[in-house]
Amino acid sequence: MSFLAAASVLLLLEAATASPAFTPFPDFQQLNVQELLSASKSHFPDEYRNFFNEHQLSEESLGNRAKYRVKLIHRDRMPVPDSFVPANLSSRFRDRMARDVRRVETLSLRLSAEKAGALGDKGGFYGVDDFGSDVVSGMDQGSGEYFVRIGVGSPPRSQYMVIDSGSDIVWVQCQPCSQCYRQTDPVFDPAESATFNAVPCSSSVCDRLENAGCHSGRCRYEVSYGDGSFTKGTLALETLTFGKMTVQDVAIGCGHMNRGMFVGAAGLLGLGGGSMSFVGQLGGQTGGAFGYCLVSRGTGESGSLEFGREEMPVGAAWVPLVQNPRSPSFYYVGLSGLGVGGIRVPIPDDAFALGDLGLGGVVMDTGTAVTRFPGPVYNALRDAFASQTTNLPGASPISIFDTCYDLYGFVTVRVPTVSFYFTGGPILTLPARNFLIPVDDAGTFCFAFAPSGSALSIIGNIQQEGIQVSIDAANGFVGFGPNVC
């Protein structure tokens, strides 16, 4: 059965045990300190080493359609050799924050109309000299945080892929590989696939790539990142497999030269809003609708990544998507305010406005870990939280976090709620584990927000963990589901 014959796909992921709230919620909640510390200390447990070998797939008949399930895990629990990722929490935290800073810098650069114009005068958005692609990729040297396993080619070769809502390209490392970083699985060899078809330069698919290159009649792509990492190679049509379901003729980048630290992943599965992303290529077959639930740290529950309008949750709180013509690949949402302990934080009415030049606004991003707000907004949020946590022992700032607490010896602590006030009225109150996180093995927890250094706001994956997020791009809404996922 091909994907084009189906109305939707359901991919099961790991998710959270705590749920968000859109109904009246207590001003304070309990944070289970010991549970989070225990979960963070477990590194590459046996169940994850064989994560995709047991119960990898299941299938259900749903009338004239089917749903298929695969697993998705956080990068810190990738079943790869220990040399890929530091074993202790402190080292993993420092690496994660370093990746996060690079990603935010890259996003801010790309979403700055003034800087984009300046770079464009030099022969391409990313400064590519010979040929390049203006295809958006939100991933900056391994900053993507979540991985899925899919089959590439025919017969399918299983590969770990990063999922990224800020990317508009699907790519994998390919043989012959003149420059490749280390990955878990053997590098994909297109010569062994019966369905691999290089895209000719004259193809309309190649035309979707701005500044696409051409070599020996084949369409070439290149995506470079702010820190010098890149992928480049041949654009091709290939079959992707999710369990027993095949997705035929997907345009993918077959990367023969790649650089970056992607922690074992073979490439990237872009879920952005552009026509070259996996979602964009599915087009009318899914009605431009999909949803996801991100893995929560240290949990073994299941959530969902859904393709198709029929899978949109009933009873979700729907928030308008905001269009940014300068950056159509990103999912902007209408945010009107913030709350701490049930009290609205005093910030300007236009703090989250998207300007006429495409500056500012609020982006939902799966590849950024920590939510960023403009400096004055962050300061107001932090001060409001700190004023209601004076009973907790303080700790020194760590990395990008300036508000931390020494919770060594605590079993649980009482903390004020943190809420997002969305345009149109919905208020999303976050689970405590989504804004106060462990950063070392000694019981230090930090307030997981940071200043963006610009007018841009980014809702990161820590704040999204365990929450059903549904994107209905065709109708211009993002939904937050009512159920634990």
UniProtKB/TrEMBL annotation:
<protein>
    <submittedName>
        <fullName>Uncharacterized protein</fullName>
    </submittedName>
</protein>
